[in-house]
């Protein structure tokens, strides 16, 4: 029978999974309706421009909050992030209604501004969630990461359903996109409510946050108060013992100790985002699937990424050297994608996308599992925030390198 303080593990795991879905839902929504945006803005390369707008903003927001992570109110940070994402998706719907689904330069600029808001929101809540869940059991982090991958599956599946439900015309694409965005927007509001009013009150969550507070973590104070608890002062036999209990490694020291894992994380996402979604959306040529082809490839990547985050992890697999070698070996996929797009068939492209997806998910899980081991609460929170920054750094570099696929082609 579970200890009283550890009750609610299943409910906490489900909420972590749902929060993982919601954390990327706004951004995935914008990526998944690229067929509609390519119809509205055929000359603006929205699949590549949106990530270019998004990455610097989310990276800057995350970097600033990493610097101040030890004193930031994590509760407000995460809830405000979800609410901003909810409002940004609602703004896309309002913009489309206001312009009657019209394209044009100014509509595209407005969408780019909404992307900026999405980036700030995600930079605020994603690092906060990684830091918060790093304080708890690895199971919660795995459910959160798998939820992030499930976000891609959910958006892709929902988009396939809405695309099939409406005719392949301007009006049909628009109706499908609006139904899709409405569902996604409602889900983000649900995530804000779950985190604010349910997650903090679960006994197992209160237990881990109280433990982190006893080790000197200040970021959990607001969540403990919301759950009806207060921060207890750390008491030792003398002042020196209490001071030692509060000591933690600096962010710089944590970075030096985990530099290899940081590089591996950057390498993983730099490769993945240099191929997904820009290359898969625009550079795979004409095929019998027509406009369905890009959506199928994106769905395959998201589904295998999800599967990769559920694969078992052992101590041997968490070897730092092994993770670095695996991250480097994935770069052999670059020439494979190049020649398959030029000479190969649809089956080979789907296979390569599957390998890219499952390796992305599994290596992400391994790195986030390996990083916070053997650290105290405040250090785990700092590492969660740091690795969120490394992940986004890889995303930003991948988005930049994605433009290299356009070399030799007309803009």
TrEMBL record:
It comes from Papaver nudicaule (Iceland poppy). It is found in: Membrane. Belongs to the SLC29A/ENT transporter (TC 2.A.57) family. Keywords: Membrane, Transmembrane, Transmembrane helix, Transport. This is Equilibrative nucleoside transporter. Signal peptide: none annotated. It is a multi-pass membrane protein. Its main location: membrane. Pfam families: Nucleoside_tran (PF01733). It comes from the Eukaryota. One of its GO terms (cellular component) is plasma membrane. One of its GO terms (molecular function) is nucleoside transmembrane transporter activity. The keyword Transmembrane applies. InterPro entries: Eqnu_transpt (IPR002259). The chain crosses the membrane at residues 12-29, 49-68, 80-98, 104-122, 143-166, 178-200, 261-280, 292-311, 347-371, 383-406.
């Amino acid at each position: 029978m579970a200890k009283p303080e550890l009750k609610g593990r299943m409910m906490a795991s489900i909420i972590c999974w749902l929060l993982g879905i919601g954390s990327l839902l706004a951004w995935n929504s914008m990526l998944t309706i690229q067929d509609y945006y390519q119809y509205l803005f055929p000359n603006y390369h929205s699949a590549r421009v949106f990530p270019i707008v998004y990455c610097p903003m989310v990276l800057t927001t995350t970097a600033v909050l990493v610097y101040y992570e030890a004193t930031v109110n994590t509760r407000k940070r995460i809830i405000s992030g979800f609410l901003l994402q909810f409002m940004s998706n609602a703004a896309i719907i309002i913009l489309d209604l206001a312009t009657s689904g019209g394209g044009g330069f100014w509509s595209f600029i407005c969408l780019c501004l909404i992307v900026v808001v999405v980036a700030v929101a995600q930079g605020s809540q994603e690092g906060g969630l990684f830091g918060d869940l790093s304080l708890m059991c690895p199971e919660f982090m795995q459910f959160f990461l798998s939820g992030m991958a499930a976000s891609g599956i959910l958006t892709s599946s929902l988009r396939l359903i809405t695309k099939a439900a409406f005719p392949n015309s301007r009006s049909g694409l628009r109706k499908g996109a609006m139904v899709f965005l409405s569902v996604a927007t409602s889900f983000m509001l649900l995530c804000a409510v779950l985190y604010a009013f349910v997650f903090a009150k679960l006994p197992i969550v209160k237990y881990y946050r109280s433990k982190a507070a006893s080790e000197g973590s200040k970021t959990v104070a607001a969540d403990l108060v919301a759950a009806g608890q207060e921060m207890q002062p750390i008491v030792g036999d003398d002042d020196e013992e209490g001071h030692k209990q509060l000591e933690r490694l600096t962010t710089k020291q944590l970075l030096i100790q985990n530099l290899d894992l940081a590089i591996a994380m950057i390498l993983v996402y730099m490769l993945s985002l240099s191929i997904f979604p820009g290359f898969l959306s625009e550079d795979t040529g004409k095929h019998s699937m027509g406009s369905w082809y890009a959506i199928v490839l994106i769905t395959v990547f998201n589904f295998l990424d999800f599967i990769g985050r559920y694969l078992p992890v052992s101590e041997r697999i968490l070897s730092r050297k092994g993770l670095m070698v695996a991250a480097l070996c994935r770069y052999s996929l670059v020439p494979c994608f190049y020649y398959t797009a030029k000479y190969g068939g649809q089956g080979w492209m789907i296979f390569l996308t599957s390998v890219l997806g499952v390796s992305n998910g599994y290596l992400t899980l391994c790195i986030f599992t390996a990083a916070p081991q053997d650290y105290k609460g405040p250090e785990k929170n700092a590492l969660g925030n740091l690795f969120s920054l490394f992940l986004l750094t890889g995303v930003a570099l991948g988005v930049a390198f994605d433009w290299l696929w356009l070399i030799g082609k007309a803009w």
